[in-house]
Design brief:
Blueprint: H1 3-13, H2 28-45, E1 54-60, E2 66-67, E3 76-79, E4 85-86, E5 91-92, H3 99-107, E6 117-121, E7 124-128, E8 136-143, E9 147-148, E10 154-155, E11 164-165, H4 169-183, H5 189-205
Antiparallel strand pairs: 1-8, 2-7, 3-8, 4-5, 4-8, 6-7, 9-10, 9-11
Helix pairs in contact: 1-4, 2-4, 4-5
């Protein structure tokens, strides 16, 4: 669904006249719905770590603490913890560490550490101990780009009638409904309840979930079983 179809569906449910254009409309009612769509998008995006907004980033290290070789993507909302790996050394990075941990690392000899640790500070990506140049670091993150142009380019808002969304358009439509009634001073309680139920259900189904082990965390790749079948040993 496009921005135009989302607003059209919302108008149908709110007993309003369907628009022929949205982004360039001069109708104040349509302008309001347009604004509500762009309010709902980022709000919905922040409700959870949606798989549709999950992306991967890689960069090459430089031999200094402050990494300058584009270590942070321009659309970063937040890192996914535990996803940082040095593909050159095949070792996981520690972090993001706390400021206290970072200062402890600085106070100890670099030779005391086997694993690299990282921290984001004032928009800079810092690694300790100082890594060798040329190593590949990869991780996953949640993007701020919840909207998408007709050319497939990620965006942080709707700007054109043919823009679409990485997020569920039905959820955006439901969000517009209750926000519109709230803005107009109408009773929106039932609409908000329906919206919250739909968001909760979507989050519960989004991307699946890992198996929980009451005995403790499961190693990412148990070395003693990584390449062994459950039985028969391939025979």
């Amino acid at each position: 669904m496009s921005l135009l179809s989302i607003i059209s569906n919302a108008c149908d449910r709110l007993s309003l006249t369907r628009p022929t254009v949205v982004a360039t409309s001069t109708d104040q009612l349509i302008r309001q719905l347009f604004g509500l769509a762009n309010a709902e998008g980022p709000a919905l995006a922040k409700r959870g770590d949606w798989q549709a907004l999950t992306a991967e980033w890689t960069f090459i290290t430089v031999a200094q603490a402050q990494q300058t070789n584009t270590p942070i993507p321009p659309d970063l909302r937040k890192f996914i913890p535990g996803s940082f790996f040095n593909r050159t050394t095949v070792r996981q990075l520690v972090g993001p560490v706390t400021p206290q941990q970072w200062e402890l690392f600085q106070a100890r000899p670099a030779a005391a550490y086997v694993y690299l640790a990282f921290l984001e500070r004032q928009g800079e990506f810092l690694i300790t101990p100082v890594p060798p140049a040329g190593e590949t670091i990869a991780y996953q993150y949640i993007s701020t780009n919840w909207a998408m142009s007709s050319a497939g380019q990620g965006k942080t808002s709707f700007t054109s009638d043919d823009d679409t969304s990485f997020l569920d358009e039905e959820l955006i439509t439901l969000g517009i409904q209750w926000r519109f009634k709230q803005a107009k001073g109408l009773d929106y309680g039932e609409d908000l309840t329906n919206y919250e139920r739909a968001v909760s259900s979507a989050l519960g189904e989004d991307g699946g979930a890992s198996i929980l082990n009451i005995g403790g965390p499961i190693p990412i790749l148990p070395p003693e079983r990584a390449n062994l079948p459950e039985g028969g040993f391939g025979l």
